[in-house]
Please model this.
Amino acid sequence: MKTIQLHNGIVMPLVALGTFRTNDQTTYDAVAHALSVGYRHIDTATRYNNETQVGQAIADSHIPRDELFITTKVYKTEHGYESTLQSFHDSLARLQLPYVDLFLMHWPTRYAADAETWRAMEHIYQTGKAKAIGVCNFTVHHLEHLFETAIVKPMINQVECHIELQNHPLEAFCKSHHIVMQGYAPLMSFAIHSMLDNPVMQEIANAHHASVPQIAIAWLTKRGWGSLPKSVTPSRITENLAAQYLELTDEQMNQIRTLNKANKLYPDADNIELS
Model:
């Protein structure tokens, strides 16, 4: 399994199972299958309302805790020092875990609230209950303001990233601060047919005897990004994990780079309600 080392030394598997917009038995079944075929990184969040099912699937897998990498997130409605601590406590209880490997701030809000939330996350990190901490959906200016008060810099910035939204400037900024990038919606979510029907992606997929979604995941892996392909279909869950071992050429990487359209599918952090 391909991994990357975060700036605090923690090692993270690059390909994770995303669980956005899954719930109840569907979540349990997807996580159970993923773990059975070799996934060791599962991504959830308070906002997804499925931490209980994720936790039960983990418990039933009987995989040793130190072989897993589990991520959860605090949502923007729970920002603030005490409320973040409470949210994290509740997440651990739902997940039935003594700690998580990565705890993320799900969205930026007001600078002052983010700073207090981050202060709570640093406390959680210092206790060892979260082995790493990071952010989601942060742009450069959100990160710059967080740096003004942060003692510990984020280890991860999880953002939307796919062939039509490639985030090269943000990636360069984060790399300069040793922040690892992690892409959600790597298969373009509800717009997946735009990717599936792309002739460049089809040509590259044919060259590797692979599927177009596998090429999209391999492209992020080659860039050193984590990826969160989400599926509840067993065969696709298995296929997505195998994609990390495809080796794209530099020419193929450059071909995919030309597909960038700044096409954002999900809300922009600067244009959403703050609470």
